[in-house]
Amino acid sequence: MTINTSLYSVEAVAILDNEGRRLFAKYYKAPHEDAVEDIVLNEKKQLQFEKDLFAKTFKQGNDIILFDNHAVVYREFPDCVLYVIGSLNENEVLLYNVLQGLSGALEIVLKNSVDKGSIQESYDLVVLTVDETVDDGIVLETDSTAIASRVTNAPTEDVANIKIDLSERGLLNAFNFARKNISDRLQQGF
Amino acid sequence: MSTSTYKRFEDPESGYLPDKMTVYQECLQAFNASPIRAKKCRLLLSRLLRLLYDGQTFPKTEATNLFFSVSKLFHNGDPSLRQLAYLAIKELCTISDDVLMITASIMKDIQGGEPVFKPNAVRTLARVLDGSTIHAAERAMRNCIVDSNQTVCSAALVSTYHLLPVAHDVVRRWANEAQEAISANKKLVRSPYAIHEAFGSSPRLPQSTFFHQYHALGLIYQLKKQDRMAMLKLIQQLTSRQPLQSPFAVLQLVRYVAALLQADTNLSQQFWPLFASWLNHKSEMVELEAAKVVLTGSFKFNPDQQLKAISSLQELLSVPRTVTRFAAVRLLSRVALADPEKVRACNSDLESLVNDPCRAISTYAITTLLKTGNAQSVDRLVKTIAGFMDDISDEFKVVVVEAVRTLALKFPEKHSTLLSFLGDALRDEGGFSFKNSVIEAIFDIIKFVPVAREASLELLCEFIEDCEYTELAVRVLHLLGEYGPKTPKPSLYVRHIYNRVVLENSIVRSSAVIALSKFALVNDRKLTASIRILLKRCLQDADDEVRDRAALSLRLLEAADDGPTAAAKARGLLEPESRFSLAALEQQLCRYVRSKDKSSFTTPFDITSVATHTEEEVLAAEYKAKTTVEEDQIVSSPTPETTKATKSLPEPADLAARADLLEQQYAQELSAVPEFEEYGPLLHSSEVVELTEVETEFVVSAVKHIFKEHLVVQYNVQNTLKDIQLENVTVVAQLDTDAYSEDLAIPAETLKPDSSVSIYVSFSRPHDLALATLANTLSYVTKDVEEATGEPAEDDEGFPDEYQIEDLSIVPGDFVSPCFTTSFTNVFDDLDNEEVSVYNLGSPETVKIQEVVTKLTQSMSMMALEGSDNVEGSASHTLKLFGKSVNGDRVAAVVKLVSSSKGVMMRIQVRSSDAELSQLLANQW
């Protein structure tokens, strides 16, 4: 029995649409180490893996599958599937907790409508949610409220009127600068 | 231009990606503009990330351009833009140049930025830094670890963890901060920029989720894992005074304790109270991990403790969460492989899981039940499965069939139920892999359960009548050819086979021809004559392969008429009695082809040098491999074709091949020693016997090789010291009997530090089997090794020394090798020279029947037959053993074990064609 003492426990997170196409896919590797598995760098393998995985899982109504030497937990939404992928020996419940946290947080940030459309529309929120859940394979947080509370909303409008403020100050600065310069010269007796 | 792409992206149904070049251009434009429009830029960033997370990459120069324009976004103070910008930087880091440039901006954010993106800044920093630049960030990182904001602290700890491989020494300096972080109180902070209307079922943000404990513990372990005392202290502290709040942290702690146990299994009992509490932890994942350690690790947990773990798994079997049930049943099935007895307590729970909506769970439940089931429950179980086969996919069907196959080997007497199940399975619809597994199962029954042979052959005959897979038809025909002639009524099968010749494609036809020809060898003139007629008809076949084979067979059959010697020769060609060991053949061929010395090609490859096995030996190896297979079966693989390739554990055939290769390797090593050239072929090699503890300075193990007239003991000596070299190493072996006489010893000249050598001592062996004990002493000259050269000083004469190692006994098992027979009872009845001995092994508390059985099988070096190496009840057991001695004598033993209040009684009854052998084996205990 080999004991895995590393914190790197999630191998990949993926969201596929109802035809098995990628909406989001991130295969993790430790930032300062070489990739252990070939699949991390090989996009062709990733796509093949996702295609086969999708065929095995879509509309099956289960939560977990051991697939091609990976333990995969997943959750189906109306027209997309969220996968959390770990190694074959990873604690399945750990992976499931990550999945729960992530999907719960997605529900919060996407206002309870996790589907293909809103994922594409609010892609910034989705990627931030994933990034706040897993950081290159290390689980950051599994409480969905805590995850969602880290995801910032997009700015509501572009604030353009600050500029006037700035220019006014600029004018004042110029005036002050001129005044100081002139008074200096006057004092020097010019 | 942008409107069209904009539209496409907005349309949720299209699924199109934004155009890569457009996004690139727009990003450069918008990010470099002044003033920066936060909303537009965030939208562009999200499109850029959409591309990156789809697997699109940018060439290095473009990525670098993007990277620098993203860094321009730092001029804008909007926190929500900044957070996404950090994510983009993190992703672009790996594909662009000069990422260090951004360090200053990030550091500024870490020191004084808005708390909402501070953690993102910290995590991004870990991607930008490397081993040489980490010093700049040391202070900032330390401050972040002690920050009272949980997210900042976690981010800093995780970043530090990422940096470990490149900056272990620097990171070690902030171990104190990390240690304090475990117990410190950290809070989650809500940000005004991240308020979502739909805050789900639990609208209130918890005060703290304690996740930083998980990260801090992970980091500290990496820093301190070498220091055992520190680890023990840490565990002590985290389990008593300041218990961990985060279940993830507890899970990690379980793993660290397991790692400690792996290094020193004697700690198991000391840590048991911890495991006991973890087995009842409120978090399922902790319970699961603890059970995994207790049950599957090779640690010294006693049966009661393991039973506790089983019962906590049992509770997990009935929880509503599918994943938990799955994990628990998966673990149980793994335990059942090694020790079905333990899992039996869960049988009723497992039976209720058979109808679980998740098919993977029900399949695991079924296979586990099949493993733990006893002879009585087989019928019922098989009936349950039969009802269940229709609604599962092929993949699971294969797993179930595999389980049934093992069952058939374990309970040969249940063959009729199992065969009818397999027959039904064969008639059902199914893909190739499923059919193949059914065929394999039936093949095994034919090979190892002789009573069921005819019924199975009949099934196969029926199958090939309507078989769509050529490969399977060919295999079945071959098997019919092999076993058909041995049945009482061979003519029965001839019709089925000849039908193939008439109806099938050429590949099937040609193998049917060969199968037919084998029937002609039966001593039945009428049958032989008819077969000849059939074969002659085949000469008119349209395909040349079929014609060739028919002609060859006819020619051989005609030759058989010429006399007994010719007949024997023909028989040898048509029905070879021994086969080449394929592993050895491959190895030797490779060696021959790769030989550097050109002259070796002048002589052709000598096939007689390749070891051959008789059919019995092949069967023995297969049987052993098949009954000891251990693998996690329910791993789906993308396509059926790759099933074999992706299996994580070795195939049974591999196991057999490995044992085979080991034997080959010994033979080759020995034949390389000129002194042993005249000894003839190696008859038998024993298992490796350890003669020292594993931790000693010199580790010695021995293997006993039996030749026709000699016994060679091979001592493997390993020098574990780093600064001592041994010279003239030999083993002085003193015998306690005169039956053997020492011929020669081949010492090793030098034994370098940290390496190992083999020393041989050879004895003349009396023709009869004599037991003896060797008192061994290792004698050698030690020399200190100079550090600079790695060689001892030239003038160092060294000093002679001796080292006492344990005695080596020559036991009866050394003269016996395991062998398979299909009809143990017949063989046992045929043999005479019975010897019986009875022993009392001691009280049942200390003596476990299973252990005795395993030990006996090993020490007698015989094969346990009819599944008798699996102990079922705890009260009594019968073990049936069969083997063959080096002199070719067959030997069979029946061992009866009965456990009662007086102790465990053992009665060994041995019969053999050699009186002396039975006496030795019966009295060896």
TrEMBL record, chain A:
Domain of life from the UniProt record: Eukaryota
Main location: cytoplasm
Keywords, comma-separated and alphabetical: Cytoplasm, Cytoplasmic vesicle, ER-Golgi transport, Golgi apparatus, Membrane, Protein transport, Transport
Pfam family, one: Clat_adaptor_s
SUPFAM superfamilies recorded: SNARE-like (SSF64356)
Any one Gene Ontology BP term: retrograde vesicle-mediated transport, Golgi to endoplasmic reticulum
Topology versus the membrane: Peripheral membrane protein
Residue ranges crossing the lipid bilayer per the database entry: none
Domain called AP complex mu/sigma subunit: residue spans: 10-154
Subcellular compartments: Cytoplasm; Golgi apparatus membrane; Cytoplasmic vesicle, COPI-coated vesicle membrane
Entry GO terms, CC: COPI vesicle coat; Golgi membrane
Cross-referenced PANTHER family: COATOMER SUBUNIT ZETA (PTHR11043:SF0), ZETA-COAT PROTEIN (PTHR11043)
Record's subunit section: Oligomeric complex that consists of at least the alpha, beta, beta', gamma, delta, epsilon and zeta subunits.
Function recorded in the entry: The coatomer is a cytosolic protein complex that binds to dilysine motifs and reversibly associates with Golgi non-clathrin-coated vesicles, which further mediate biosynthetic protein transport from the ER, via the Golgi up to the trans Golgi network. Coatomer complex is required for budding from Golgi membranes, and is essential for the retrograde Golgi-to-ER transport of dilysine-tagged proteins. The zeta subunit may be involved in regulating the coat assembly and, hence, the rate of biosynthetic protein transport due to its association-dissociation properties with the coatomer complex.
Family: Belongs to the adaptor complexes small subunit family.
Protein name, as recorded: Coatomer subunit zeta
Native species: Brettanomyces naardenensis
TrEMBL record, chain B:
Main location group: cytoplasm
SUPFAM superfamilies xref list: ARM repeat (SSF48371), Clathrin adaptor appendage domain (SSF49348), Subdomain of clathrin and coatomer appendage domain (SSF55711)
Pfam families associated with the record: Adaptin_N, Coatomer_g_Cpla, COP-gamma_platf
Stretches for region Disordered: 630-651
Domain Coatomer subunit gamma C-terminal: from-to ranges: 813-923
Domain Clathrin/coatomer adaptor adaptin-like N-terminal: 20-560
Signal peptide: none
Family to which this protein belongs: Belongs to the COPG family.
Annotated protein name in UniProt: Coatomer subunit gamma
Species for this entry: Brettanomyces naardenensis
